[in-house]
Design brief:
With 255 residues, the protein is α/β, with parallel strands linked by helices. The longest helix is centred in the C-terminal third of the chain and has 16 residues, at 191-206. Helix content is 40%, strand content 13%. The protein contains twelve helices and seven strands.
Length: 255
Amino acid sequence: MDLKMAKIITVTNQKGGVGKTTTCATICGCLSELGKSVLAIDLDPQGNLSFSLGAETGGAYTMYNALKHEVTLYDIIQHTEICDIAPANITLSACELELTSVGREHILKEQIDTIIADYDYILIDTPPALSVLTINAYVASDWLIIPMIPEILSLQGFAQLKETIQAIKKYYNKSLEVRGILLNQYNPRLILTKEVEELAVIIAEQLETEVFTQKIATSVVVAEAPAHGKTVTKYAPRSKSAKEWTTATREMLGI
């Protein structure tokens, strides 16, 4: 019998406020609706992905416990209406100081390897910083998806991101691929949007990737959905946003 091996995808950008968590949660929701088995891994100490997907983080085991080898990844997985999730909370912020052993970059990959045959897709949400958590995600991943918003500040830090990706590919994960850049909060009527989009294409070329054709427009339902513990496609299935996200997910993952 052939074992399925999950495609592991990290949503990343060291700039905050670009829609990483929304992107991660919504892709998970879209994939679940397409009949795929999905695990979301929250690697951000803020725990926003866990909240968005309806996970319990108070008295439960979290990614902190798994990365510290106190429990296995399997032990912390929760089943929600949207998908399975390995949750996180503020305790995860201690990992930067506490994970000091040789091979610390591979801890997440080793944990994922134990459950990789159980899922079609594993999505990882990362903190807005190039920390040991982010590096663990890159080492474990097949693909990176980079959300950004059409603002000049959103372009800052891409040089460092490029250097980090190149270093990971050289030393830890030769097969790591930047799948593409997703433009969030997109308003084609603004001149600045067009200018940033042109710069994003240049950045994409430097990262040997592309800017996805499907853009995600600014929308109130995107902001409202997490408060209801739902993804956009569940909260407002007939909305323009839901259609955009479904199309974007199919494009990003080649479905």
